[in-house]
């Protein structure tokens, strides 16, 4: 099989700035690289879809290149650099609290620096048993570790006597297990020999590589400078995971410190601090959690565990294959590195912005890169048993989709479980992403290219800004524009992004929300690692999968869940909020009396039809996939005009609502079907305005009939007025 893959060091780059591309090649000696400007997406053949278009850009590395395969270093662990205090261990004790999730999966390293006959390690052997490895020999307890049970585990070596003690005591329901501890003494145990390898928690060294990754939580791992006796280990177990460093500590790592970072802090005087690799999950329960508080910042000592996974991946760390400094002549827009080798093709999109302070267009496309990151390598769409049921059709895959099966180390999205069944909370763009491309399934980035195709054919002057920019720069990223408009699915939003858009509106900006299920999940970007997001699905939502007590972001400490749950419903921002989803069919909108209000005259100029959007390349209509409705009770402005509502959705949409009460019409509202998408318009006090369509499928109707249709006219009318400097006036009494 020939496979070429790549990724970039950033998603957004200004003119004059560099961007680096990483490339790996399997099964072929060479690949072809071409930098292009994307003008539309490749969709399934049908007469009303835009033609796939892109322009090759002049670039010094366009052409054939010799390729090289680079591994994907999946699996998380913590690494402490080699230090004489750890490389020259003699009589010593290794101890930790652990919560293994897959002890039967195979040999897994809990902690140590063992490699071959050198060093020492505390491990789970190939038969689910706790074991000590030293001198190339393994000494295991007879009883198997149980999955998802807390245990205090330890192994001590008396180098002078040539003996070892391996100890395990299970902790359950905040009390020690009635079965009591299990311990066994071993004789003729070799003295630990020096190891120059780094000391690792959650993995074992194999040269520079990490192997035998551990699945599960580790809490308060320690290395003590003498062989503790059985009674010593009992006291250490009963003391729990809190407290000062042990008097004999060579290293004592307290994971309840620096939770929002990659730092592993050592409490011993030796300061043998370490770093986590591949983002194991932090801000998770420890063995002593008592459900007293749900904010790890208030009781960090009860969140002193780290959950390691053998399939965690943050950054592939591939070398740079190509670097490009964006020429001054390039316009702001959507670009990509196209990689080709044999029958294999891979796209690495990126977005070009003008130089700082040199924005020329009146409007900007706000690209939902935060959502792209949350969905990156959406494995459940390929493997999930529910996928075809939801969509009502057979899942269609192509060669790029199959890369996730051929290369499982590519990792997963925040919709997928880890190999041990726990939900993936972190997702990174610093790896090849199979569903971030202008081809394949028409969804997310591929679907957002419908907007680019529309802007290009209409010759509308525009520029692009990404979520990454909005998060990093705040409102200054968009303040040069009169109007910003979203992609089809801006679902994931950070606090910084929400604040920026709200400030933009207060300052008189105009906002076009041209999608559905927007501003739904609160998200956090990693404070130092680019392209890495965190999602914790706490509380009510379509995927309320996280344990409620682990519902504060590890990156920021913020309460996680939907923006509705945390008190900032999207209705406050854009007048509509998510109500349901359905992936079998889309429909149109029926205009309301309010659509004939003089305030909305500019929106429907040239539109005579009372039914709009009852067509489209996405399942037949402009209203569908995921839909939002107007709801005063959730913050939709009372002066907002509800211009049109979708109708006749299938019962697939009915079964997807979060609560039964969402199906019941409210007495103080119009007699509308509660399962609907709403088109809404309202003015803001700063002279600005908001226009929302409440549907992911909207963009799929723009190109219908060669762009001669009412959805295109409505969208163009609104954009034309929104870039007009004439201020909007709030209606009297609003």
What does this structure look like?
The protein is an alpha+beta fold and 734 residues long. Among the domains are: 3-72 and 318-355, Macroglobulin (MG2) domain (Immunoglobulin-like, Sandwich); 77-308, Jelly Rolls (Sandwich), CATH 2.60.120.200; 571-726, no CATH class. Helix content is 13%, strand content 31%. The chain has 13 helices and 44 strands. The strands form eight sheets. The chain has a 17-stranded antiparallel sheet that branches. The protein has a nine-stranded mixed sheet with strand order 31-29-32-34-44-43-42-39-40, with helices on both faces. A hairpin with a 2-residue loop joins strand 14 (163-172) and strand 15 (175-176). Helix 8 crosses helix 9. The chain is elongated and about 95 Å long. The model has no long low-confidence stretch (mean pLDDT 93).
Produce the secondary structure layout.
Layout (H helix, E strand, L loop, with lengths): L2 E6 L3 E3 L3 E9 L3 E9 L15 E3 L6 E4 L10 E4 L3 H4 L4 E9 L7 E5 L7 E5 L4 E6 L2 E8 L5 E9 L4 E10 L2 E2 L5 E5 L12 E3 L2 E3 L2 E3 L4 E9 L5 H10 L9 E6 L8 E4 L7 E4 L3 E4 L20 E4 L11 E6 L7 E9 L2 E10 L9 E5 L1 H6 L4 H5 L3 H5 L7 H8 L19 E3 L16 H13 L5 E4 H7 L9 E4 L5 E2 L1 H12 L3 E4 L7 E2 L1 E2 L6 E3 L35 H5 L2 E11 L1 E3 L19 E2 L10 E7 L11 E6 L4 H4 L23 E6 L5 E4 L11 H4 L2 H13 L12
Parallel strand pairs: 2-28, 29-31, 29-32, 32-34, 33-35, 34-44
Antiparallel strand pairs: 1-3, 3-26, 4-5, 4-6, 4-27, 7-17, 7-23, 8-13, 8-20, 9-10, 9-17, 10-11, 11-12, 13-14, 14-15, 14-16, 18-19, 20-21, 20-25, 21-22, 22-23, 24-25, 27-28, 30-37, 36-37, 38-41, 39-40, 39-42, 42-43, 43-44
């Amino acid at each position: 099989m020939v496979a070429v893959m790549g990724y970039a060091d950033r998603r957004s780059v200004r003119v004059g700035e560099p961007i680096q591309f990483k490339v790996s090649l399997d099964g072929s000696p060479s690949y072809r690289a071409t930098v292009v400007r994307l003008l539309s997406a490749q969709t399934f053949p049908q007469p009303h879809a835009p033609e796939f278009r892109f322009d090759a850009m002049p670039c010094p590395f366009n052409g054939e290149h010799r390729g090289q395969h680079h591994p994907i270093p999946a699996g998380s662990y913590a690494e402490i650099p080699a230090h004489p205090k750890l490389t020259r261990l003699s009589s010593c004790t290794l101890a930790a609290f652990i919560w293994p999730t897959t002890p039967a999966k195979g040999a897994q390293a809990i902690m140590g620096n063992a490699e071959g006959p050198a060093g020492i390690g505390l491990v789970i052997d190939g038969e689910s048993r706790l074991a000590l490895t030293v001198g190339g020999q393994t000494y295991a307890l007879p009883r198997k570790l149980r999955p998802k049970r807390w245990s205090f585990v330890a192994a001590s070596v008396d180098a002078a006597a040539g003996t070892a003690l391996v100890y395990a005591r299970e902790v359950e329901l905040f009390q020690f297990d009635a079965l009591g501890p299990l311990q066994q003494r071993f004789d003729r145990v070799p003295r630990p020999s020096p190891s120059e390898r780094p000391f690792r928690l959650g993995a074992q060294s194999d040269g520079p590589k990490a192997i035998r990754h551990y699945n599960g939580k580790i809490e308060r791992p320690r290395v003590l400078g003498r062989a503790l006796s059985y009674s010593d280990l009992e006291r250490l177990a009963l003391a729990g995971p809190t407290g000062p460093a042990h008097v004999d500590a060579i290293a004592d790592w307290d994971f309840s410190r620096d939770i929002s970072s990659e730092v592993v802090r050592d409490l011993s005087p030796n300061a043998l601090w370490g770093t986590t690799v591949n983002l194991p999950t932090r801000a998770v329960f420890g063995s002593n959690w008592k459900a007293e508080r749900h904010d790890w910042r208030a009781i960090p000592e009860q969140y002193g565990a780290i959950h390691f996974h053998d399939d965690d991946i943050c950054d592939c760390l591939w070398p740079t294959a190509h670097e490009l400094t964006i020429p001054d002549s390039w316009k702001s827009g959507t670009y990509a590195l196209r990689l080709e080798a044999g029958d294999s093709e891979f796209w690495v999109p990126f977005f070009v912005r003008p130089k700082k302070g040199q924005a020329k267009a009146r409007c900007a496309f706000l690209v939902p890169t935060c959502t792209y990151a949350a969905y990156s390598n959406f494995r459940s769409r390929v493997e999930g048993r529910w996928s075809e049921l939801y969509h009502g059709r057979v899942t269609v895959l192509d060669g790029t989709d199959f890369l996730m099966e051929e290369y499982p180390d590519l990792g997963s999205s925040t919709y997928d479980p880890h190999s041990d069944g726990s939900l993936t909370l972190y997702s990174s763009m610093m790896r090849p992403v199979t569903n971030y491309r202008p081809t394949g399934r028409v969804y997310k980035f591929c679907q957002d290219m419908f907007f680019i195709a529309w802007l290009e054919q209409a010759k509308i002057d525009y520029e692009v800004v990404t979520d990454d920019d909005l998060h990093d720069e705040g409102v200054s990223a968009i303040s040069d524009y009169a109007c910003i408009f979203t992609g089809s699915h801006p679902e994931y939003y950070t606090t910084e992004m929400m604040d920026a858009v709200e400030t933009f509106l207060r300052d008189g900006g105009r906002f076009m929300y041209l999608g559905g299920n927007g501003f739904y999940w609160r998200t956090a970007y990693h404070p130092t690692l680019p392209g890495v997001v965190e999602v914790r699905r706490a509380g009510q939502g379509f995927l309320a999968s996280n344990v409620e007590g682990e519902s504060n972001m590890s990156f920021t400490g913020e309460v996680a869940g939907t923006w509705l749950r945390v008190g900032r419903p999207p209705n406050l921002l854009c007048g509509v909020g998510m109500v349901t989803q359905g992936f079998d069919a889309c429909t149109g909108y029926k205009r309301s009396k309010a659509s004939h209000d003089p305030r909305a005259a500019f929106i429907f100029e040239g539109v005579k039809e009372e039914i709009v959007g009852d067509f489209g390349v996405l399942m037949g209509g402009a209203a569908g996939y995921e839909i939002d409705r107007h709801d005063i009770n959730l913050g939709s402005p009372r002066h907002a005009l509800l211009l049109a509502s979708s109708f006749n959705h299938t019962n697939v949409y009915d079964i997807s609502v979060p609560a039964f009460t969402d199906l019941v019409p409210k007495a103080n509202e119009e007699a509308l079907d509660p399962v609907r998408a709403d088109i809404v318009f309202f003015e803001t006090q700063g002279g600005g305005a908001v226009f929302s369509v409440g549907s992911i499928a909207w963009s799929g109707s723009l190109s219908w009939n060669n762009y001669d249709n009412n959805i295109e006219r409505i969208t163009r009318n609104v954009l034309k007025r929104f870039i007009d400097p004439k201020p909007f006036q709030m209606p009297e009494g609003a």
